[in-house]
Amino acid sequence: MAYGTAWKEERTEALTRLALEAGFRAIDTANQRKHYFEAGVGAALGTAFAAGLVTRGELFLQTKFTFVDGQDHRLPYDRRAPVAEQVKQSFESSLEHLGTEYLDSYVLHGPSVGRGLAAADREAWRAMEELARSGRTRYLGVSNVTLEQLELLCGFASVTPAFVQNRCYARRGWDREVRELCLRRGIVYQGFSLLTANARELERPAVARIAARARVAPSALVFRLCAALGMLPLTGTSSPEHMRQDLAALDLPLEPDELSELERLAG
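-> structure tokens emitted (267 positions)
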């Protein structure tokens, strides 16, 4: 399970440190000041390393390149530069923010267009491939991507994505089609907004019944289902208690029929 650091602003450093103390060893962020405070993540990592709480080698660190349209005025690169140069500038800025010499995963935060892929997307991915081949990032990924876009990306990429990170809706079969393509391609699917995107489904009687039987909160059932589906779930909770509960949910004992019922929540 990864700890997601979006929308935390001045609380980012403290909450990231709490997540590390709770046992998280995968941190997700982005060099997009509009929704993330990447430098706050880096500050938390610095104090955690200094205190001996965790070493860099024990940590999975993932951040993202975001196109101009997804940014506000606080850009981590020169908007006039070619896209490939923007990728490099954003990457260098991320390393500085995070106080690291390499990344475990570098993610394209989303294609520049809603359908298909544009020339800018291919240019960005080629620049990311250079970073992967140089060993400065161990893996590449893509976020907020449709099935069509993922198929196109896999079709031209020489370094294929190791991760896909999407908002995951129960009413869409937990992004079944994209997950199936990921499974065929050996790509790890990362699901986010697992609770906020499925608030209505979590109010279903079936969820309440299974949660009562297992003596857990409904949120625990979602994270357990994700593990059963082969997903890497993200959580962004601000509660230390919920951080520990979310991690523990991955090993929650549920019956196969209960997992099947949760998978069919949208039905």
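The CA atoms of residues 17 and 45 lie 7 Å apart.
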